[in-house]
Amino acid sequence: MKNVLIVDDSESIRVVVETALNEAGYNVFAGENGEEGLQLLIKNPQIDLIISDFNMPIMDGITFLKKVRQLEEYKYLPVLMLTTETQGTKKVEAKKSGATGWITKPFDKEQLISIVKKVIR
Amino acid sequence: MIEEKSKKIYIEEANELLISLESSLLVLEDDPTDNSNIELVFRVMHTLKGNSSMFGVAVVSEFVHDLETIYDKIRTGTLELTKEILDSTLVSLDHLKIIIQDTTLENAENKENHYRLIKQNNALIDNETTSIKSEPILNSEEQLNSFHIYFAPSITILKNGFNVLYLLSELSEIGKTSVLPFIKQLNELTEFDPIDCICSWDIIIETTQTSKEILDLFVFVKEDAKIEINELKCVDLVSNKEFKKIIEESFYQEEKIELSEILQHAKTFGKSIEIKKTEEVLALPLSKNDDHKKKSKKKSVTSIRVSSDKLDELMNLVSELVTTQAGLSLFSEKNKIQELEGVTENVEKLTRRLRDISFGMTLLPINTMFLRFQRMVRDTSDVLGKEVDFITEGGDTELDKTIIETLTDPLMHVIRNSLDHGIETREERLKKGKTAKGKLLLKAYYSGVFVYIQIIDDGKGMDPAVIRSKAIENGLITEEDHLSEKEIFNLIFYPGFSTASVVTDVSGRGVGMDVVKQNITDLKGTILVESKLNEGTSLTIKLPLTLSIIDGLLIDLDGVKYIVPVSVITKCYEVQNEDMCNNFNKLLLLDGEQVPFINLREEFGYKKLDTGYSQLIVVSDEENSVGISVDFIVGQYQAVIKPLGSYFRKQDFVSGATILGDGSIALVLDTHKIIELYVEQIKTEV
């Protein structure tokens, strides 16, 4: 079973992602901000994919992403960023910081799964 | 689309977000230059917008979008935060709180406000078009098309964690494909980086998708790769064995297939191919050295979540501490050491504050529960085909979380009853000259150390005569019993009592009101019904604020200690025992008023005293005041209430026990029950 880490400060988003992924047969870890995300990642090296929000308290998504890329064993780990359509510049910024791709909010279950399948199988 | 459970979380979270937004805005009002708060406001708005669009609440997401734009401009310095903006934001916030409950803008007033505020906010953004554009959905024709795709990712593409092979298999999911890899010249093994992508692909695909849809698949790699999509106006290229063979042969030529080549091959077996070049994307690999550091900003954490287990443990420890502190106080009193007394007093003060604070932490605004009803009322009234205005008041009233948990079901039941049996259908209401829409008010408020929760409807009310005859039919009372209206209404709380002539899906199975009463009683609360025929019914639930530690009055009765909760005591008097003994109607004249009394010595089977003095504590519930006589009052005492053992559970005049400073046990008297027993006793005597 593939393991996915979702990092978002919004509980609703976490729950939606978690339920959708669980239904699709993924195992999900959830963190509320970048810092929690990092800790979860270090504790659970079996994680295959990270989905992270941009705007979060304590540690935002870009910082989180950069920190992940700094870790030798996660240099090439797929990371998808959650974004809204108004943030075109954010996508570029995310790409530069090493994001694999993005998921545009709002998304539904099917869209989420199809995007996740783009990067892990 | 998304489960109910998540929706509930969405609403709860949206409310939390609005609350934190409000407090940040108020801080901004004092200091409009506080950048960290502007940042926070923007972030919260952004989250709210994102969540709302996730849950399909377009009304909210579009509305917040404008607000977000304003604060984005303020954040980046293109707009100045004026009082006008703040005022408008705060009004918008109030509006948001409302429309989160009314996401379809059913209420005309909400609708009007909504569009007025959108206009107002838009004016603040400087007339820029800001509403979210919804992309038109293209109807894709179910027609097979062939495409030639040339896909040459940049050498660094694998470094972002993207696996190109997934993309290729994704392509093969949307149609029949023929994929040909082309590998560039390899470097020497020593210089070779295994993460470099040195491959490019030619793909011939036969699919019903359009070229735009195909390009969408490349969404993550568009900037990192050279992609060419050419439409081949030819249907069965991929399945054509001959063509496939030719194409495969070219694989060994270590060359990219040129479009003209395909044309050539296709022509050889008589296919006419039109080539429509549709898309070509070329982007330079992103430079990796472009390091732009983001200023790390300190963000205020306004609240944290703590598991309820930890809170329970804290409460337990505080309870223990209160008990231990009582022991210390007693010891210090006995020993009269001045230094010890000072310390003890401090410990007592600190304990009391600690107690109050930890109690405060277990309190939740009752709103969390009210919100759940909102939806239920809408659904239920839909099922019943009734129109109901559901109004909640006092949602910020705080209650212990365990009380809220226990209350949800009973309240749900009462509300359902009101909707089903109370509020009439539109036609009935109009006939009676009432408004077409029924009104259901749920309101909570503090009064003293109690919380009152009222459910008031303006429905048809209850008919005492109907209840009475039903009760007689059920054998609860007999024809000869003469009951007051209030007593008749109380009959509805008896097990198996239901006046509903028809059992509906919603309610009316006669199980319920007795359970409701039981639940409330378990919480040491009381419930009161009032009703006027054709005007409505109101149900009032009265609950003590907290359960586990109370301020009590420690009293002594023949050497045994009891606790009476201070909250119910109105006054204390000193009375002569003589007056009580030779008293036939059990009434004492106190402050010019006749007060009925209970001689506890007599009730508890102790020897009656006929000389000397006793203390009379007057306690009262909603309507009755009764004096309780005790030997003497020891003083005030913080009592940690512990449940009684199973042997004593059934003693309903005692609500629990507490451990005193010297380790002995005092029973906590339930004065409500004592008054109730007393009233019953009087009746049987009459």
Give a verbal description of the structure:
Chain A is α/β, with parallel strands linked by helices and 121 residues long. In chain A, 45% of the residues lie in helices and 21% in strands. Chain A has helices at 11-23, 34-43, 61-70, 88-97, 109-119, and strands spanning 3-7, 27-31, 49-53, 79-84, 101-105. The mean pLDDT of chain A is 85. By secondary structure, chain B is an alpha+beta fold. Helices cover 42% and strands 23% of the residues of chain B. Chain B is built from 20 helices and 22 strands. In chain B, helix 2 packs antiparallel against helix 3 (58-76). Chain B is elongated, with a radius of gyration of 38 Å. The relative contact order of chain B is 0.05. The chains are: A alpha/beta (121), B alpha+beta (686). The interface between A and B is large, with 42 and 45 residues.
Quick summary:
The complex is a heterodimer of chains A (121) and B (686). Chain A contains five helices and five strands, in the order βαβαβαβαβα.
Distance between the termini of chain A: 10 Å
The average pLDDT score of chain A comes to: 85
Cα-based radius of gyration of chain A, to the nearest Å: 13 Å
- Total beta strand runs of chain A: 5
Measured by DSSP, the beta-strand proportion of chain B falls in: 15-25%
User: Order of SSEs of chain A, N→C?
Assistant: EHEHEHEHEH
- Give the overall average pLDDT of chain B: 77
List the helices and strands and how they pair.
The complex is a heterodimer of chains A (121) and B (686).
Chain A: E1 3-7, H1 11-23, E2 27-31, H2 34-43, E3 49-53, H3 61-70, E4 79-84, H4 88-97, E5 101-105, H5 109-119
Parallel strand pairs in A: 1-2, 1-3, 3-4, 4-5
Chain B: H1 4-30, H2 35-54, H3 58-76, H4 83-99, H5 108-124, E1 145-153, H6 164-174, E2 175-183, E3 199-207, H7 211-217, E4 225-232, H8 241-251, H9 259-268, E5 275-281, H10 308-335, H11 338-361, E6 363-365, H12 367-384, E7 388-393, E8 398-400, H13 401-422, H14 426-431, E9 438-447, E10 450-457, H15 464-473, H16 485-490, H17 513-522, E11 526-532, E12 536-544, E13 549-557, E14 560-565, E15 569-576, H18 577-581, E16 587-590, E17 593-599, H19 600-603, E18 613-620, E19 625-630, E20 632-640, E21 654-659, E22 665-669, H20 671-685
Parallel strand pairs in B: 7-9, 14-22, 17-19
Antiparallel strand pairs in B: 1-3, 1-4, 2-3, 4-5, 6-8, 9-10, 10-12, 11-12, 13-14, 13-20, 15-18, 16-17, 18-19, 21-22
Helix pairs in contact in B: 1-2, 1-4, 2-3, 3-4, 3-5, 4-5, 10-11, 12-13, 13-17
